[in-house]
Design brief:
With 700 residues, the protein is an alpha+beta fold. Helix content is 56%, strand content 9%. The chain has 23 helices and 14 strands. It has helices at residues 2-14, 19-30, 35-45, 52-58, 74-77, 90-134, 137-150, 153-156, 164-175, 267-270, 296-308, 367-397, 399-403, 406-437, 444-470, 480-518, 528-539, 545-551, 555-593, 599-634, 645-651, 665-672, 682-692; strands at 198-199, 202-204, 208-214, 218-219, 231-232, 264-265, 277-278, 283-284, 288-293, 316-327, 332-342, 348-357, 643-644, 679-680. The strands form four sheets. Strands 1, 2, 3, 6, 9, 10, 11 and 12 form an eight-stranded antiparallel β-sheet that branches. Strands 4-5 form a two-stranded antiparallel sheet. It has a two-stranded antiparallel sheet with strand order 7-8. β10 and β11 (332-342) form a beta hairpin. It is elongated.
């Protein structure tokens, strides 16, 4: 090695190489340097008798700033050995090409899935932001709670209204005083509060309406001791609804102070929605016998008159109080509906409902309004994009393969719900425009209907939010662990279905037992639906052992203890065992055949490749800079202490242009040569060194 180097030095000395190259070669013969540095230096002066072209064909070099690009013999690039001309068998080459093609296709598929996931995450985030910007849940809750307290809703559920007499007491003591002025209304400094009726600063919009639903009398069953000609009044059904107000003896009321209260009006006449109102014991249509209360005096007179005329009697099955309040500070309406259900048992059960909403959602009075509108427009564009993509997928692949994909059904469910919400939004917006144009429409019935549409829209948005976030499971293949979770659920799906059938049998059996044995005394088992809900709550420890023991001291504890043992000790552990077994199968499969490559693996591989390339680039730049330092040290061929333009041109010859930031020799001389004599002295050489060392500052 040393001999070869000495001979190389002699060869360079006898040649016409530059003086700085001779000095550098002499220095290299005395001092060992790093191989990578020696390769670059040899390319400048010639470490052996081969030509520069031959040396570049065999050794890695820094060419044109493309750091990391290795140029070598063509045989090596084709897969053979640098020392020979070996080639691969044709079959192996074809097989490797096919494997590479398959790998490329899988990478494209994973990359496409990643792009879809990123777009979908943006879509879900956008939808979530719109939901939060469109609602002020804290103030909505406080607003609703204020009205609930004022209407004494808490006392209603504690049995304060349990009969016809207590119903009239509640009407006189709570409903009628709503028209009375409060402290805010008496404050003359606020002229706004002198123009209407307010409840703690919340304006009552329009009148309060009372609406009654009744049932027709039906023949009673023949029971000894009872008159067989008498009539009975069953639970409310729309088919049994009374349309002509008749008393118990099938005669019209003799005294009618307010005849309109005894005339049946349909839902369309009252502006009610055609969807029946769901109460605790039945569903009630929007029609009925209605009377409006305009002010405090009017309300007192009408309530006393109706009470005296026994407007509410044994035929009554429901009485609604409808009212709407508006809070100007929050720009919120609250549609209140108090339902009192009169049961055939003679008892009364309250069922209040509060719908809080913003009537005019596009007021354009703040930046927030514009932001929400823009985001909603973008959301609609996303929805149209997804609809087009689904249609294109059906057109390309056919309807049968399309229907075999579970997530396609989820996608269409999501899009259909979005379409319904958009339709409701357009309808309510048009109605709001009509309300603004005609203030006389601000009546309780109209606002109740509008509030129903707002409420349904919010409900559908909640359903859509759930579907959207659950659809993230579609992209679970982003990491290996998420892939295992998805495969575990898929592998266990059949066993889970069988387990669900077994669980259903136990639930139905115990549900029917609880309903039959405890339903008449315990409210947690009074219906089959409630009984099943109680059983599922008991699985998670929410049960009342004392109450069920009081119902039946023998069967109650046995029933509850046996259900806990079967549901928790047996069924719940069986479910965990099914998932555990499926997970172990997936885990063992991954061990045997190797884990499936995921999107996350591709990301890590690309990041690692990029990081290694940057490290290699940095290392090669360091070698190139060291090379430039050495050239500057020995570039003064005539040893006169300065560097002429010709000497500088030889120094920077073959240097990576990126290292000099694209500067030519003339550019460097113009920038570094301060005195303009085309000669670089010691000070100017120092400036040149600083100028050419700026590139590493941008590297990691």
């Amino acid at each position: 090695m040393e001999g070869g180097t000495s001979q190389g030095v002699k060869s360079r000395t006898s040649s016409s190489a530059p003086q700085w190259a001779k000095k550098l070669a002499s220095r290299n013969s005395q001092t060992r340097i790093a191989p990578a540095t020696r390769v670059s230096r040899d390319s400048l002066g010639g470490a052996n008798n081969k030509t520069l072209k031959e040396r570049r064909s065999q050794t890695p070099t820094i060419v044109g700033g493309n750091y990391g690009k290795v140029e070598g013999p063509k045989s090596a690039q084709r897969g053979g050995s640098i020392m020979g001309t070996g080639t691969r068998p044709a079959t192996a080459a074809v097989q490797e090409d096919e494997e590479n093609s398959d790998t490329t296709e899988l990478q494209k598929e994973r990359r496409q899935t990643l792009n879809e996931m990123i777009v979908y995450v943006v879509f879900v985030s956008l939808f979530t932001i719109i939901i939060f910007l469109s609602r002020n849940n804290t103030m909505s809750f406080e607003y609703t709670q204020t009205l609930r307290d004022n209407l004494q809703i808490g006392n209603l559920f504690q049995g304060s209204v349990a009969s016809i007499d207590t119903f009239w007491d509640y009407t006189e003591d709570v409903i009628v005083p709503l028209f009375a002025t409060d402290a805010l209304s008496n404050d003359s400094t606020f002229s706004y509060y002198q123009e209407g009726i307010f409840v703690h600063g919340n304006k009552l919009m329009g009148n309060i309406s009372m609406r009654q639903l009744r049932v027709n009398g039906q023949p009673c069953r023949d029971v000894p001791g009872y008159d067989p000609s008498r009539s009975c009044f069953p639970e409310f059904k729309d088919s049994l609804s009374e349309k002509v107000f008749l008393k118990g003896d099938d005669s019209s009321p003799k005294q009618q102070s307010y005849p309109s209260a005894y005339v049946y009006q349909n839902a369309s006449d009252l502006g009610e929605v055609r969807v029946a109102f769901q109460g605790g014991f039945s569903n009630y249509p929007g029609g009925g016998f209605i009377i409006t209360l305009a002010n405090e005096e009017d309300a007192k007179v009408k309530v006393l008159s109706l009470q005296a005329e026994k407007w509410v009697d044994m035929k009554t099955r429901a009485v609604f109080f409808d009212m709407v309040f508006y809070n100007d500070n929050l720009n919120m309406f609250c549609a209140v509906r108090l339902l009192f259900e009169f049961l055939p048992t003679g008892s009364v059960r309250p069922n209040p409902q509060f719908r809080t909403f913003v009537l005019n959602r596009y007021q354009w009075s703040s930046i927030r309004d514009y932001v929400v509108a823009i985001l909603e427009f973008i959301l609609v564009a996303f929805i149209l994009k997804y609809i087009v993509e689904e249609i294109v997928e059906i057109a390309k692949g056919g309807i049968k393969p399309y229907l075999k994909q579970f997530w396609n059904f989820v996608d269409w469910t999501n899009l259909i719900v979005f379409g319904v919400v958009i339709g409701m939004r357009l309808r309510t917006t048009l109605e709001v425009i009509g309300f603004i144009a005609d203030p006389s429409l601000f009546e309780a019935a109209n606002l109740q209907t509008l509030g129903w549409y707002f409420d349904q829209e919010q409900t559908l948005n909640g359903v859509n939010a759930l579907i959207c976030w659950l659809k993230v499971f579609k992209y679970l293949k982003i990491t290996r662990r998420m892939t295992q979770l998805s495969r575990t659920i898929t592998k266990a799906i059949i066993d889970i279905a069988i387990f669900a059938c077994v669980l259903l049998l136990f639930v139905l059996g115990y549900g029917v037992f609880g309903f039959m044995v405890f339903g008449t005394d315990n409210p947690e088992y009074m219906t089959m639906t409630v009984s099943i809900q109680t059983l599922f709550r008991a699985i998670f420890g929410d049960f009342d052992a004392r109450a069920i023991s009081q119902n039946d001291s023998l069967l109650g504890p046995i029933y509850l203890f046996s259900w806990i043992m079967i549901a928790v000790a047996l069924l719940l552990n069986m479910f965990i065992a099914i998932l555990t077994e499926a997970y172990m199968q997936v885990h063992n499969e991954d061990k045997e055949r190797g884990s499936e490559v995921t999107i996350f693996d591709d990301i890590k591989k690309a990041m690692k490749k990029r990081y290694n390339a940057l490290l290699k680039r940095n290392e090669e730049q360091i070698h190139a800079i060291q090379e430039l330092k050495n050239r500057l040290e020995y570039g003064d061929e005539d040893n006169d202490g300065v560097l002429t333009r010709d000497e500088l041109e030889k120094v920077v010859k073959d240097i990576d242009p990126q290292l000099l930031e694209g500067y030519t020799v003339d550019d460097l001389m113009q920038e570094v040569d301060m005195d303009g004599d085309n000669v670089l002295d010691a000070t100017e050489l120092a400036r040149f060194r600083v100028r050419t060392m700026l590139i590493p500052a941008t590297c990691p």
